[in-house]
Description:
Elements: H1 9-27, H2 47-60, E1 64-68, H3 73-83, E2 88-91, E3 106-109, H4 116-120, E4 124-128, E5 131-133, E6 138-141, H5 150-154, E7 158-164, E8 168-169, H6 172-176, E9 186-188, E10 193-195, E11 201-203, E12 210-216
Parallel strand pairs: 1-12, 2-3, 2-4, 4-7, 5-8, 7-12
Antiparallel strand pairs: 5-6, 6-9, 10-11
Amino acid sequence: xxxxxxxxxxDSAREAVLGRVRDALALxxxxxxxxxxxxxxxxxxxxxxxxALLTDRLLDYRAGVHPCTAAGTAxxxxxxxxxxxxxxxxxxxxxxxxWLADFDGEVRQDDPDTPAPRLDALDGVVTGAAxxxxxxxxxxxxxxxxxxxxxxxxxxxxxxxVIDLSAVAAGVPExxxxxxxxxPTTLISGPSATSDIxxxxxxxxxxxxxxxxxxxxxx
Length: 219
């Protein structure tokens, strides 16, 4: 019969810690206490102020901002794509085809089987957005028709995103209230960027190097 190993100081310390955990659990309230969370909601801003605030945040993130009317959507998108030299663009299923009516390049509709190398060969991508937050300059994409899968907006180097001013909320709680719970949501605040240990900014590492936002102001 083998002898039991002598107790060590580590064993004693472990038992002491576990004993304190057991004591704390015994004192825990049952059932769990419900914590009231009084989040600020209902903040509103007039359209011109929301547009100005969102524009300020986006420009600070080094994104392009292009306000337009609903009637001028196609012309604005075509101009942005031309300025960026885009000749082949990808679009998600469900995107309004009229948005690309003035674009004279090639439009390729994405599908789940399109591999990343083919997405990388695109000059850019055009999508819509579910909502935006003016306070933080954040766009919310939830994969619904017109927005597409996440890979489509991460792989190409240029992302042109169209958002209606009516879908731009003043603050974060108000923006979240516009989303459909359970949908896969991607949050975008400016072009993809990171900094090394010397704080040198590098764009395009984790997503599009260039982000252009078309804001339709009369929808």
